[in-house]
Design a protein that fits this description.
The protein is an alpha/beta fold and 353 residues long. It contains 13 helices and 13 strands. The strands form 2 sheets. Strands 3-2-1-4-5-6-7 form a 7-stranded parallel beta sheet, sandwiched between helices. Strands 10-9-8-11-12-13 form a 6-stranded parallel beta sheet, sandwiched between helices. Helix 1 links the parallel strand 1 and strand 2. Helix 6 packs antiparallel against helix 7. It is globular and about 65 Å long.
């Protein structure tokens, strides 16, 4: 099968949940003999990874993307005026539309695979008109905005709730318009259908398939943790709002309670693009909090830690870092939201607080 695979991020290196999921899908498709043409947004620092993608893709095309707070503000205001979700407006670039048209004009594509919700807009004009279309939902995005609204300051609650409503309508329109939808958990599948009439939900459910995220259990040996460690590690892509929100909540509200009983405990925060207040908190902590930024190899940080905490309050999908912690033999403490979609027994295989 000839597949046009649309991604919002370059899926290499597989060092974060979305990249790991997408990289494994591409590897699997290549192993099954499918011919994949990848079309992806790319940031300047990611261009070095394009050669790796050519190992599993027949062709790789990229469209440059640059992000800024000012641009995001403009996209946010315009999305409200246009009545479209912010993520869709932000990632609607003429260059990507032109690239998709050019690839499809060759007439050899059998399937358009849209990886994550923001890439579906490039398949919608072709739905029912040629190649089959597939929405690969990493999560039910509307629930992220809904959960964030419950934790946000009063000025942001209403905008986040409105964004959740817009995104839910958009995601449910995708279920109707595109040929198939993949979800990573049964919970996400039902969240995508939430609020629909029973008959319509059942019809759309038949167009959906649940395929969980997997990790390489054989290629990642358990870490050799230091006995007696008093260090807690937490990690994630820190410019992603749900990750930043959960970790910020942990070091502001939870970590001081731990310190009250264990004065020598330390916290290591690992991840790309930490917000300024993370570094400020580390500076004020007297060495109790360390912010590393991006690290190419997690192993020494895992070896130095007693446990991993995954303080998710507003995420969706599956927390790949929990799966990888299990593979590496790390004890995990998380929230009920963090454990969604993972079949682990609270109190036995993971601690949920």
């Amino acid at each position: 099968m000839n597949i046009l695979f649309l991604t919002q991020i370059i899926p290499y290196p597989p060092d974060a949940g979305p990249r790991l999921k997408t990289w494994n899908v591409l590897r699997h498709l290549a192993a099954r003999g499918h011919r994949v043409t990848l079309a992806s947004f790319v940031r300047p620092e990611e261009e070095q990874h394009i050669p790796h993608l050519k190992e599993v893709c027949a062709q790789v095309f990229t469209v440059p993307m640059r992000r800024s707070r000012l641009a995001d503000l403009a996209y946010g205001l315009w999305s409200y005026a246009a009545g479209r979700p912010f993520l869709i407006e932000r990632d609607d670039l003429p260059a990507m539309r032109a690239l998709v048209r050019r690839v499809l004009a060759e007439g050899s594509i059998d399937l358009i695979h849209c990886d994550q919700v923001s890439m579906t807009q490039y398949a919608l004009p072709y739905a029912g008109k040629g190649p089959r279309t597939l929405f690969d939902a990493h999560n039910a995005v509307w629930t992220i905005f809904q959960r964030m609204s419950q934790q946000a300051n009063p000025l942001l609650r209403l905008p986040l709730r409105l964004e959740a409503r817009r995104m839910r309508r958009y995601e449910q329109d995708l279920l109707r318009s595109l040929d198939r939808t993949l979800a990573v958990t049964d919970i996400d599948r039902e969240l995508l259908l939430e609020g629909l009439p029973a008959g319509q939900a059942e019809a759309l459910r038949r167009k959906m398939t649940v395929i969980p995220i997997v990790v390489d259990a054989l290629g990642q040996p358990p870490v050799k943790r230091q006995p007696g460690s008093r260090n807690i590690i937490t990690l994630g892509t820190l410019h992603y709002p749900p990750n930043a929100d959960g970790i910020r909540w942990f070091f502001e509200s939870v970590f001081p309670l731990i310190q009250a009983g264990q004065q020598d405990v330390t916290l290591t925060i690992v991840g790309k693009n930490p917000p300024p207040d993370f570094s400020a908190a580390a500076d004020r902590s007297g060495g109790a909090i360390r912010v590393t930024g991006y690290v190419p190899d997690l192993t020494p940080y895992l070896e130095a830690a007693a446990l991993m905490v995954v303080p998710v309050r507003a995420g969706g999908g599956m927390r790949v870092r929990i799966l990888e912690a299990f593979v590496r033999g790390m004890p995990v403490v998380t929230t009920s939201v963090g454990l969604e979609g993972i079949d682990a027994r609270p109190g036995e295989e993971v601690l949920v607080e």
